[in-house]
Fold this protein.
Amino acid sequence: MKSNMVTLLTWSSENHDPEVIKNVLKDLKKANHIVNKVYYLYQSFQKNKLEKIKQEYPCLEPICIELDKPTDHKKIYDEIRNNVLPIVVKEQNLFINISPGTPAMHAVWLILYAAGEFPSGTRLISSQWNPKTKETFCDDVDFPITTYLSKLRDYEKENPKEAFYKPENAKSEARKNALEKIRVYARVQGVPMLLLGERGIGKSRLVESVVSKIKKKEVVSVACGTLDSNLAESAMFGHKKGSFTGATADKKGYFGEADGKILFLDEIQDLPKGVQRKLLRTLQDKKHRYRILGDDKESTADVELVCASNLTENELRQKLDPDFFDRISFYTVNIPPLRECREDIVGDWNEVWKTVRLDSSSKEAPMDKHLEKYFKTSRLSGNFRTLQSIAYQLIAWNGKKTIEEILKNFPAEDSPNETFDIGDFSTFQNLTWKEATKLFQQKLAEYSCGKYGTQEAAAQKLDCTSKTLQNAMKN
């Protein structure tokens, strides 16, 4: 049988090395695994012993990890995530020996494994000593727990050219709050979810990646704006052959296709009113009964509904059938625009660059003082699309234009706000005092956050709280 070349990751064993390493290598060899590299985590006080071990095992690649308390779970987690994962992320056959170390170290291995942080196919092993037989053995650790984060990691590996939200990387309170709401709401089965957010903020990506991984279901996506108003009911619920002129064959319809899955209705405001009312009746029925056009009996489908819109909640309420709006809005999540998540923009920029860059492009996302200022002050009205536009311009000009020159050609609405402009006064004419005040506060909040870079900085200048600004921008 052909031997399998693998990489081993292990803590140093203070009292039992080099015996532990020796026995693990021997036991893996028995199982037809040849270790060609050993990532060996040690602390600086173990350096003298390390030199001796390395002489005996040249395949050792030491990684120094400093831990004041080897029982501090968070410190261990941070050290591994920041200093070890970037090194092993591309290893194809990684074995992690979780036996050496403290119980806290064991727990961190399990947590990172369950979260899908290690490369696909990583195996946890445990090297043990049998006092009765006086022999060592090496077993796989049976830890089948998976989380939606591990599913996200798999999704990321399978779709390397697609940018999406990484909940664990969120820094701004606005984004953390939105993602936490999605996590909580998505766990409830059978209740629709409504995502609201500006164009380009990534609502579809959130459904495809985060929501689908939490619910553990595939997504059937429908762009409501593309539905022909005359055929929308047929497209949604299907039809039987001959049920109307042009119905030359049976059609299942999106609702039937989504049986056992998530039905994602994007830009829900474009769904015709007649279909809204029929969909409402279906949603109100626990069995989700519906009728295919031309069929004399009812069908049922187990469907999880997620809707999205680029309108505000008030605007959407006015557009949709009132009862339908009430039915789909029990779990409403407002996805904040990038200008409300300034702390996250650099990370978002790095992710976008990674997905659009050419093989000949720099691996590191370009950055200079002009782009840094732009990210701190621009409205970023296109959200992720604005970041993509910048990236594509940089790729096209390939150094022939500076970042400063490229940014000067961007639309005026995305340029940094230098003056506070409340717009045409006629906008306020037909509003009540309360409505006009709200609109003014919204404009002032947006301007201030753009000018000073973050909600925190703007709040300090205006002598208010970040929450006050956040609420004003939602109005």
About this structure: The two ends are 67 Å apart (CA to CA). The longest helix spans residues 433-452.
